[in-house]
Amino acid sequence: MFIEKLKLNSFRNYPEAEVEFASGVNLISGLNGQGKTNLAEAIVFLCLGKSPRTHQDKELILAGSNYAKVEANVKKNVGNVNISGSISNLEENKFWVNGNQVKKLGELFGNLVCVFFSPSELKIVAGAPSDRRDFCDTDISMLSEAYYNLTLRYEKVLAQRNKLLKFEKDHAKIIDTIGVWDEQLSSLASLIIKTRKSFLAKLLPYAKRFLKEVSGSREDINIEYQGISGETKEELKENIKRALEINLSRDMELGYTTIGPHRDDIKIELNGKDSRAYSSQGQARSIVLALKLAEMKIMEDEIGEKPIMIFDDVFSELDSGRQKRLYECLSGAQVIFTGTNFKFKPNGEFRQFKISDGKIKLKVKR
């Protein structure tokens, strides 16, 4: 799939803009602060229904405006799709697919599928466990509305259990009633953990392959899910219920649930060592790039076509050899790179755009 045309209206620093992308490589150049990342952000907003940079959607609206809109024409193997989204100071965000308003956010997923890299994505390696869980859950949700809805149900049941633990002061009453929430929580949790493990099992071989390609065969990666043990749904459910019972005294003391998929982690090892402690910033960047390329392959396997690949400021710390290998790994996909300067240009067809103060101009078409 690829984006043919992107339109912005009062989005970030763009009063109005329109871009016609190449189906292959697109280079977005310009000085810092001119709107390169904002352009990439607009595409991800249509993909996920939210910004990858802020939880405050009103920050996406141009200063002095009350409303912003993003629209994309997407060409897929099965035909064209028009996707648009609006942000308002007065109401919740709204999305449309081929003119039909999306009633639930999960219905947006799959119409535009993209993989996004920016320097902030290094938190997948060095950040908190929640950053690695979000990486995993976002990818699965893009491919499965059912999984997205499953995580929403889990969060609601978890909130009810935590409410009981926090506000009920009579421990005897908690013990008497918490079994209802434990039964629901363990059932939902077992499905989430099983799905995550399955996703990571598919991701790992691709990540190993791409890390060797990006690093010139110098690095190896391993990924391990850290949480309640168990292989089948039934085994996981029983182990989670048992763990909830064992940890109940601690949960009552703290006022929240201390175990479950909302607390699990994903251990990433580089050359047999924990990447959080033993990888340099350059190695962390290579790991994340390998994971992003692995995402591309999993999504291609699932939907039958490559997703749109978006790399914000990826070349600033890559030598020409790694840049060349990255281009080679992305063959056949629509790719959007942003950067202040591109010293190494791709072979074959590409378009280069220059952004200055929210204005986009086609600079090179080859």
CATH class of the largest domain: Mainly Alpha
Q: Can you say what the CATH homologous superfamily of the largest domain is?
A: RecF/RecN/SMC, N-terminal domain
Helix content: 40-55%
Share of residues in strands: 15-25%
CATH architecture of the largest domain: Up-down Bundle
Per DSSP, the total helix count is 10
Low-confidence stretches: none
- The helix-and-strand class reads alpha/beta
Give me the Rg, rounded: 22 Å
Q: First CA to last CA: what distance?
A: 20 Å
How many β-strand stretches?
15
CATH topology of the largest domain: Glutathione S-transferase Yfyf (Class Pi), Chain A, domain 2
> How are the strands of the biggest sheet laid out side by side?
2-1-4-5-6-7
Number of domains: 2
Short description:
The protein is α/β, with parallel strands linked by helices. Helices cover 43% and strands 25% of the residues.
Outline the structure in words.
The protein starts with a strand and ends with a strand. The strands form three sheets. A six-stranded antiparallel β-sheet has the order 2-1-4-5-6-7, covered by helices on one side. A six-stranded mixed β-sheet has the order 8-12-13-3-14-15, with helices on both faces. The chain has a three-stranded antiparallel β-sheet with strand order 9-10-11. It has two domains: about 1-115 and about 305-365, 3-Layer(aba) Sandwich (Rossmann fold); about 120-305, RecF/RecN/SMC, N-terminal domain (Glutathione S-transferase Yfyf (Class Pi), Chain A, domain 2, Up-down Bundle). It is about 45% helix and about 25% strand. With about 375 residues, it is α/β, with parallel strands linked by helices. Helix 4 packs antiparallel against helix 5 and helix 5 (about 170-215) crosses helix 9 (about 280-305). A hairpin with a 5-residue loop joins strand 5 (about 80-90) and strand 6. It is globular, with a radius of gyration of 22 Å.
